[in-house]
Specification:
Aspartate Aminotransferase, domain 2; alpha/beta; 11% strand; 3-stranded antiparallel β-sheet
Length: 449
């Protein structure tokens, strides 16, 4: 199987080829298959439509490819940051029982304000983070991408700008641009070469320069894996007084001890939004439930842009039951974190340069040719993620057997594929964030998917 066999329309839940965004900074991403939104609207508008459909399509959408990671039938799939463990059998039974009690009511529309689900999410957040919020501060959708789109619909649009710091989750620019919001690629890695940091001073300076209506931050960041320096959030809030600041915490449950959540800042900042998902730590990607927490006033205005009855009755019920069994659903988190740290340790011994992670995946560099290594791993039955950063790949921490399969394959490939000498792993502080200056939008799975 080769790359050509995969439907590669990858983008940063989350790489592309082309120039950077509106910042005008240099940047050439290596891989053509990572070309989700490399065409600028004026470039697309200048092309000759190839069909009636293309002629009628919005000019700024011509030439783009759809978001999506390869979904291939291989033995070990470690490319989309899913939880490898199935939903526990007793939770499945509880879900089936709860659905059975509601199926005869499917002739009626669901609770459009998902009242009981919001109460369940509130209880979970207080237990997980120690932060108390009210149900009126919680909003949910079909995956975190939907709640992110609600934010952009309400606070973005024509004549407004969204700012993000790539490489990060590339659905942020995709959602922004497809909803008519100008996207600006912020700079990371302003320190030493090949560093991926984002400092408070740098983020604030860029926020002041671009005067955005929305700022996207990721902590932990995808695809780099590390948590954001906490002071960056406050610096951006101060530097962008006319912006909604979104902190995407899709991987928060995997963060290393001592990592603070932006939830702790909500009471002081009515412009702050914190997004989360049940797709990662909760082992609930197929359930499609993402949510955000913000001020009650901000949440209330999202009703203006949501579609009617956007969360089905089964979705609400399944999510509520999963939250009722949160301890069981999250029981594998520590095992996954152990596999993540095992990947960092072994890859470093092989001479690669892994980044110590706060997520359920590891970004690793030091590869002579990341495309060749991606293919060699696929030939060995292991699917990982090409995130568009030269000499780097990203691997999800799976169960022990999947992790062993990946590490054994890398051990066989290392002599021909790892270009650096054995060295210690890169260990940025838990609050550090990394990126690459020569990349536009990179593949991440988010919220987020």
């Amino acid at each position: 199987m080769s790359r050509g066999d995969a439907p590669l329309g990858e983008t940063g839940e989350t790489g592309e080829a082309g120039q950077t965004g509106q910042t005008g900074q240099v940047g050439q991403v290596e891989h053509a298959e990572q070309a989700d939104h490399v065409l600028q609207p004026e470039q697309a508008a200048g092309t000759v439509p190839s069909s009636e459909v293309q002629r009628l399509l919005r000019p700024d959408l011509r030439g783009r490819t759809a978001y999506g990671a390869p979904q291939l039938d291989v033995a070990v799939r470690l490319n989309t940051n899913e939880n490898s463990y199935p939903v526990p059998a007793h939770v499945v039974e509880a879900i089936l029982a709860a659905l059975g009690d509601e199926l005869d009511g499917l002739n009626r529309y669901p609770d459009r304000d998902f009242t009981e689900l919001r109460k369940s999410l509130t209880a979970y957040l207080e237990k997980q983070s120690g932060v108390s919020v009210t149900p009126e501060q919680v909003w949910a959708g079909n995956g975190s991408n939907e709640v992110l789109s609600h934010v952009v619909q309400a606070f973005g649009g024509p004549g407004r700008t969204a700012l993000g710091f790539t490489p990060s989750y590339s659905m942020h620019p995709i959602i922004s641009e497809t909803l008519g919001t100008r996207w600006v690629d912020g700079l990371r890695g302003t320190g030493a070469p090949d560093t991926f940091d984002l400092t408070a001073d740098s983020a604030a300076e860029q926020a002041r320069a671009h005067r955005p209506s929305i700022v996207f931050l990721c902590s932990p960041n995808n695809p780099t894996g590390t948590a954001l320096p906490f002071e960056v959030i406050g610096a951006v809030l101060d530097a962008a007084p006319d912006a909604i600041v979104v902190v995407d915490e899709a991987y928060a449950e995997f963060a290393r001890p001592g990592t603070r959540s932006a939830l702790t800042l909500l009471a002081e900042h009515p412009r702050l939004v914190v997004t989360r998902t049940m797709s990662k730590a909760f082992a609930f990607a197929g359930g499609r439930l993402g949510y955000l927490v913000a001020s009650a006033e901000l949440v209330d205005v999202l009703r203006l842009v949501r579609l009617p009855y956007h969360l089905s009755s089964p979705t609400q019920t399944i999510a509520r039951v999963a939250l009722d069994h949160a301890d069981d659903m999250l029981a594998t988190v520590e095992v996954i974190k152990h596999q993540r740290d095992r990947i960092v340790e072994v890859l470093a011994r092989l001479g690669a340069t892994p980044v110590a992670s706060d997520s359920n995946f590891v970004l690793f560099g030091g590869l002579a040719d990341e495309k060749a290594t991606w293919q060699a791993l696929l030939d060995a039955g292991v699917l990982v993620r090409d995130v568009g950063i030269a000499h780097h790949l990203r691997v999800t921490a799976g169960d022990p057997d999947e992790t062993t399969a990946f590490l054994e394959a890398m051990t066989r490939l290392a002599p021909d594929h790892v270009r650096s000498h054995p060295a210690e792993p890169a260990h940025p502080a838990p609050a550090a964030s990394r990126a690459h200056r020569s990349v536009t939008h990179l593949p991440a799975e988010g919220t987020q998917p």
